[in-house]
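Most newcomers find our protein records easier to grasp once they have seen one. The structure tokens are whole numbers drawn from a learned vocabulary of backbone shapes. The record below serves as our worked example for the rest of this section.
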Amino acid sequence: LLPDTGIDPSVFFLTGIPGLEALHLWISIPFCSVFIVALLGNCTLLYVIKTEPSLHKPMFYFLTMLAMIDLILSTTTMPKILSIFWFNSREISFNACLVQMFFLHSFSIMQSALLLAMAFDRYEAICNPLRYATILTNSVIAKIGLAVLARALLLVIPGPLLLRKLPYCRSHVISHCYCEHMAVVNLACADTRVNKIYGIIVALFIVGLDLMFISLSYVKILRAVLSLASKEEQLKALGTCGSHLCAILVVYTPVILSSTIYRFGHHVAPHVHILMANFYLLFPPMMNPIIYGVKTKLIRDRVLLFVRWKSS
């Protein structure tokens, strides 16, 4: 049984995965494995890009930002999730809950924006190869990074501020592994229409606009590729987009599936919702370094060289 704190708004309790509490210890094994792979993969990616001068290019600068975002996303939630699974440590203060929610949503939005920036990078590399180096200078890349950060902050800051104004006189038990916006909103005992409208607008704005511009970039890329003279040139040009396309699928497919189940799967068991929410949060940080490590020859060769040096 989880405690109910009455009208005290200072403490919440996370359930973990409702209905599967008895299996938390076993469920922690794949969760912990994914977390370790994400940490090792992204740290390795950052180290390789930093130490290899041939990787100091716009595409890899964006990849560095993506790896840092994935690291922060993983460490924002996984320590608390594992503490629930291992030690039944369910308590989280209201302020810590808002901080976790802020980091979670901010960096999820940054992740989406980085994929859009990387689509722009691929568009310029294929459609404007002669101007690529002059368009994507270090200064422009830094400005894009600041824009990614600013957009996330502007979109996410209103969420915690709105939640702080709500009274929480019902149960303080959050049926989730971490503090998520709508999970906290549903605990309030006041009119939450503004909060719900805000959440829907932000979600549609991020997924809708980012996916639309990414799609437009690839339509133009495909046109440019098809206009190339030989089949070999076409395959080579498309090959440079392979890693990015895989990253897009890894990030957006779980998001769309989870959102669809949440909106329309009213008869789906609660633990399925929670597992899907964790899947879209944890899967991309694990897969992104694997995708770029396997499909990018420069990174793959550098990692293999490092492994051989360590084993010799």
